[in-house]
From TrEMBL:
<protein>
    <submittedName>
        <fullName>Phospholipase</fullName>
    </submittedName>
</protein>
<dbReference type="InterPro" id="IPR029058">
    <property type="entry name" value="AB_hydrolase_fold"/>
</dbReference>
Length: 449
């Protein structure tokens, strides 16, 4: 078996892989035929402002063709390495089986296993701090500033994440012979805690990536404004599309943080240890999967691997568009709870964090305490959006969505719910009107509505 390893952001030395390559080669069963000379260490530039994540994906394709040609191979990624490889899949294997001539579908991909360690699949809350502040977090970045364009991709709710997530929703990787797995942790290494930035000790995360942001089991809802108005003049929202991502193996590993020689999910592995660490054993089990039945059994084993004792969290990513597909950037978003759908009836302690994407402006990410949200009365939840402008020549109506008794179906622990909300752009009759030829005169007052 050929194995490629792909590191995360702002890495400048292949020693970041620690003893993981050696440990995998040492403890691999003979059936895998995984020797150290069959392991390739990826090196890519993520600390240059001009480099985009799509550039890295294209460069990976060139390197793959040079070293592996069309041989089947597996990949183990860390952190941003997962979006790099998933972007490569989206760029080179995006066609449907009956797609256009010359395009390739996922079932033609030479990648057999994608094992993602602490992946930033839905971004990282740290990214919004900016490259200068991140570079000063010496414990994480050792003074190396991450590249701006990759940082933009990693900011919660980015358009790049949105596009990649939508691609993945249309795929069926296991049926096409690709077996994806996510292994992450939620342990905070006190040696890496930054007292000026609480995100490095955020509950439900490994200090950099949230479990809900790593997990590739997510759901996407599309909602659209309807003509139906309530007594207050708010329009109702209806669900126009509800899609679940393809099932993906997911495991929360005990005593695993994002980085660090002591607890880092990858960097703490000692290649000379007499017995393999849990992460090494699990990776090797993932690599041995060869059928849909094997995959399903291992996914269940991963899900049942450890009882969770602490609070669990869920992530909600809201994006607001008009009916022309243009982003709406100025809006308020209120969660509603209880049979009266009252924002004042949300459970105490439900809220953990919120971020609005600075680049797109129309994406808002909420991080919620899942266990507290389950205490919502009768499982009733919803949300209200107050967009602006709400009056004038071109404006939007307030909208509301209500869902009775299905909170646990939509807000799932350690998962992300994507909401794409489409509002109607309402035009005043004064925007364009016709008048008789004998009624000439100044019409500037028509703009005063």
């Amino acid at each position: 078996m050929k194995l490629v390893m792909v590191h995360g952001w702002s890495v400048t030395d292949t020693r970041v892989y620690g003893g993981l390559p050696e440990a995998l080669a040492r403890f691999a069963p003979e059936s895998l035929a995984l020797d150290i000379e069959h392991i390739f260490l990826g090196r890519y530039i993520s600390f240059n402002d001009e480099v985009r994540i799509t550039d890295v994906a294209d460069a990976f394709e060139r390197a793959r063709q040079e070293r592996l040609q069309d041989e089947r191979f597996a990949v183990v990624t860390h952190s941003t390495g997962a979006p790099v490889i998933r972007t490569w899949l989206a760029r080179y294997y995006a066609a449907l089986p009956q797609g256009e001539q010359g395009q390739k579908a996922l079932n033609q991909c030479p990648l057999s296993h994608l094992i993602m360690l602490a992946p930033a699949n839905h971004g990282s809350a740290l990214a919004q701090l900016g490259k200068s502040r991140l570079g000063r977090l010496k414990s994480w970045f050792d003074g190396v500033e991450p590249g701006q364009q990759i940082l933009d991709w990693l900011e919660l709710g980015s358009q790049g994440q949105h596009q990649l997530s939508r691609y993945w929703l249309s795929q069926n990787p296991v049926a096409d012979g690709l077996y994806p797995f996510v292994i992450s942790g939620e342990t905070i290494d006190s040696n890496l805690y930054d007292f000026l930035n609480s995100y490095t000790a955020e509950p439900g995360s490994d200090g950099v990536v949230r479990l809900a942001g790593a997990n590739l089991n997510y759901r996407s809802l599309e909602l659209a404004e309807t003509p139906t108005l309530d007594d207050t003049g708010r329009a109702e929202l209806s669900i126009t599309a509800d899609v679940m991502a393809p099932a993906c193996g997911f495991e929360v590993l005990p005593r695993a943080s994002h980085s660090g020689n002591k607890l880092g999910i990858m960097t703490s592995v000692n290649g000379r240890s007499p017995k393999p660490k849990p992460v090494v054993s699990r990776i090797l089990q993932c690599l041995q999967v060869g059928s849909a039945g094997d995959y399903s059994a291992l996914c269940q084993k991963m899900a049942d691997s450890r009882p969770r004792t602490g609070p669990r969290f869920t992530q909600l990513v809201v994006r607001l568009w008009d009916n022309e597909g243009e982003p709406i950037r100025d809006f308020d978003f209120l969660l509603l709870a209880g049979p009266d759908y009252d924002p004042g009836k949300l459970p105490k302690g439900f809220f953990q964090d919120r971020q609005k994407n600075q680049r797109s402006g129309n994406a808002l990410t909420l991080y919620l305490n899942h266990d507290r949200m389950l205490k919502t009365a009768q499982g009733c939840w919803g949300f209200r959006i107050i967009p602006r402008p709400d009056r004038g020549l071109a404006h939007y109506r307030q909208v509301e969505f209500r869902c009775a008794g299905h909170l646990a179906d939509y807000l799932v622990a350690d998962q992300t719910l994507m909401l794409d909300v489409h509002l109607t752009r309402h035009l005043h009759p004064h925007v364009f009107s016709l008048t008789g030829a004998n009624e000439q005169g100044d019409f500037r007052q028509l703009a005063e509505v």
